[in-house]
Design brief:
It holds the Pfam family A_deaminase. Keywords: Hydrolase, Metal-binding, Nucleotide metabolism, Zinc. It contains 16 helices and ten strands. It is of the alpha/beta class. The chain has one domain: TIM Barrel. The strands form three sheets. A four-stranded parallel β-sheet has the order 1-2-3-4, sandwiched between helices. Strands 5-6-9-10 form a four-stranded parallel β-sheet. It is globular and about 65 Å long. The termini are close together. The chain binds 2'-deoxyinosine and zinc ion. The site of 2'-deoxyinosine has 19 residues, from helix 4 and strand 2.
Length: 363
């Protein structure tokens, strides 16, 4: 098998389910848009600004990590700016070898320039359409609408999602500080989505542990877990002291349920290291969860704040865990199976894009 160079990983078809639109701007674009909007940035040069984002996000705390978004959201308050950011997002993902992506953002954070929620969704879709056209169909990108978990308008955002489900919006999510804001706070929105046969994921098990994951699945009915990395808290790896047994991992009831039901985990390794959810890439629970055959997917979360890309995430996993092309294909097929587009579309991308793409790389 060919050596897994960075360039080979870049060329491999990749699927991205967890990426924030307001966490993936090009530093150069922020500098230009901030100058137009009169927004004061912490650094004036694109390179220094990029460094500021990664260093500030490297705090070990999700709350401090989230503060950096003030500077991206500030330049995403007009239709043209939103469309540009969305178009560039598609171009950057396509250049990175991503063939299908679901990109999320919170429409309510983009109303300060006078846009309505509807206009925000339309502007982002315009950018996605332009980006997909410019990249000649190399990538399909869909929207996920996020509600902020500390706010009380999730039902309204859920209704916005359902209203635009045939216009490029395929799902719903809640994000923001996790501790103190459990998923059940938004039960009304999730029950509404279930009655509407709509799909949703929930950021859970990132900065807070098993109770958050349990609520997301057993109370709210989440299709997928945003991060979900703390499911390892329900897995015991050590053999009982003095037992003399081999250390076979033992799954608690929640971990077993998540694995048995094939509930997708949207794992974001670099982001987790930055917010303190994992000590390092090498110690990231993705290794154990992959060994145990959970439905693991690999994601970027915030490409700007983590200075990352799908290629970078996968290259780091290859280095830390020795994964090969078969493993990368497994992550990719897992992600495509877990996408919120219809089954026939998922199957088409798996059979016509992903499998032939990996086969060509094996040469
Ligand atoms: O990893 C995350 N956890 C919780 N919230 C997050 C994460 N990454 C981004 N966000 C927040 C900040 C953004 O402004 C918002 C919508 O994309 O979602
Ligand atoms: Zn996220």
């Amino acid at each position: 098998m060919a050596e897994l160079t960075r360039e080979l990983i870049r060329r491999a078809p990749k699927v991205l389910l967890h990426d924030h639109l307001d966490g993936g701007l090009r530093p150069q674009t922020i500098v230009e848009l901030a100058a137009e909007a009169g927004h004061q940035l912490p650094a004036g040069e694109p390179e220094a600004l990029g460094r500021w984002f990664t260093e500030s996000a490297d705090s070990g705390s999700l709350e401090r990590y989230l503060e950096t978004f003030d500077h991206t959201v500030a330049v995403m308050q007009t239709a043209d700016n939103l469309a540009r950011v969305a178009r560039e997002c598609v171009e950057d993902l396509a250049a990175d070898g991503v063939v299908y992506a679901e990109v999320r953002y919170a429409p309510e954070q983009h109303l300060e320039g006078g846009l309505t929620l509807e206009e925000v969704v339309a502007a982002v879709q315009r950018g996605f359409d332009e980006g997909q056209a410019a990249t000649g169909g190399a990538i399909a990108v869909r929207q996920l609408l996020t509600a902020m978990r500390h706010r009380a308008n999730s039902r309204e955002v859920a209704e916005l999602m359902v209203a635009h489900r045939d216009e490029g919006v395929v799902g719903f999510d809640i994000a923001g500080a996790e501790a103190g804001y459990p998923p059940t706070r938004h039960l009304d929105a999730f029950e509404y989505l279930q009655r509407e046969n709509a799909h949703f994921t929930i950021h859970a098990g990132e900065a807070f542990g098993l109770p958050s994951i349990w609520e997301a699945i057993q109370w709210c009915g989440a299709d997928r877990l945003g991060h979900g990395v703390r499911i390892v808290d329900d897995i015991t790896v050590d053999a009982p002291p003095g037992s003399g047994e081999a250390a076979a991992p033992r799954l608690g009831r929640l971990a077993a349920y998540v694995r048995d039901k094939r509930i997708p985990l949207e794992l974001c390794p670099h982001s987790n290291v930055q917010t303190g959810a994992a000590a390092s890439i090498a110690e990231h629970p993705i290794g154990l969860l992959t060994d145990l055959r959970f439905r693991v997917t690999v994601n970027t979360d915030n490409r700007l704040m983590s200075g990352t890309s799908m290629t970078q995430e996968m290259a780091a996993l290859v280095e830390a865990f020795g994964y090969d092309l078969d493993d990368l294909q497994w992550f990719t097929v897992n992600a495509m199976k877990s996408a919120f587009v219809h089954f026939d579309e998922r199957l088409r991308i798996i059979n016509e894009v992903i499998k032939p793409g990996y086969a060509a790389l094996r040469g």
